[in-house]
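Side project, low priority. Logging it here so it doesn't get lost.
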Amino acid sequence: MQSVTVARLRPLSAAARIAAVADPGSVAAVDEALAGPRPSRHLARWGLRTQDDDGVVLVRATIQGAPVFVAAQDECFLGGSAGTRHAEALRTLFDLARGERPEGVVLLMASGGVRLHEANPAELMLARALARLLDLRAAGVSVLSVGVGDVFGGASVLACAADEIALLPGMRLGLSGPRVIEATHGKGELAADNVAAVEALFGAEARARAGQVALVADDATAVKAWIVSTLGQREPFADRIAHAHGRLAKRLEAIPSTAVPQSPIPPALEILFAAATALDSEELLWKLRERPVWITRPPGAGTFGPRFAHGVDAALLAHLVNRTESARRTLFVVCDSAGHDSTSAAESLCVSQYLAQHAAVLALLRASGVQIIGLLAGNGHSAAFFANALQAPQVFALEHARVVAMEAAAIARVTGLDGGTLAARIDDDPLVGHAVRHFAGWGGVAGILPDAYPGRLVALAERQP
């Protein structure tokens, strides 16, 4: 019997993984700009070397004759983390794909998420890449993601925002990594050194058994077959959003509690919500009285988790999608929270998919002509900001708002950087500083407002182009 050679992707470099799944001789540069060097401008200050591609290889190719764009992340460079240039390259790739309309875009993902050495600009740029990915899907171009390495943090939301997601055996997918969960909630929640518990929560096999991802053999032929068969599954973007919403609802129904966790409306927002009327029973979507302006309720002291994100989406789909009015419709996505839900329970539901779905619902609203404006009213914390208000084309912030990619201690733990140095810089450093002025300095905030007075927001809505 003749032996069959298995071309495994896992041991290969990012470029070699692309070559393994692409048709021979079909790999070429997407364009000159993406082919040129784009090393990080921010790593030297931390004493770290740069890499010309900043950890992501981008090409055009064919796979079994189908023209595609492919991005492959390099986990050997700073864990595949998405730095500013890395994320900017992904955003550019999605923009080019929207113009050229290949059969699809394939993401070979292996990343720990936003590069915390470049926290503020990196989070901003990866959020913009996420928005462009979803705009690309809304325009009818398929996006597929394959986890060829571990995929965590904001990269997990990006992966889950694709039309379909697959993982190779042994890979892990999650928003908060095991060390983050243990540090936040203790070993009783999850012991990061308990291999079996970690695999049961994050592992590809567990995710596949739960129906959250496809499991594809670590074999170039099998991966190619999955890509080609999945590219052929055409479905309108709005239908995909509706079907995904139904699947995520059933996942929530399978666990005991059904109520959306509520916190009081933050004091800085009381004047705004006093001028509005709640539209849903959970009071997650409100409308300014006699104005075509809607506002989402933020978690405040609570977290932005599966139930909260799904509740907001249910209200948006019921009350704003497909609504027709002569006046322009504006949605203010209001952000203030303790961050995304970083518990084992949230990860068992695959919280990344709920946040990706929320970003997709916002993209559907954009595609249907709704003007989306972000309002950072307090803490713009981690993925609760990244997949929410930061998905708006423009974000405004109140004066005392803060942007927290991660707390200083967590950044130190994940990156190995000196915790004392980071803590000292947390107010004044443009890269990692929490004060909203730093995020504004990178172009992430269009304006800083003295308050959330309703008339001020209505004026903002009316003057946007």
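Brief comment: The chain has two domains: 14-234, 242-463.
Revisit when time allows.
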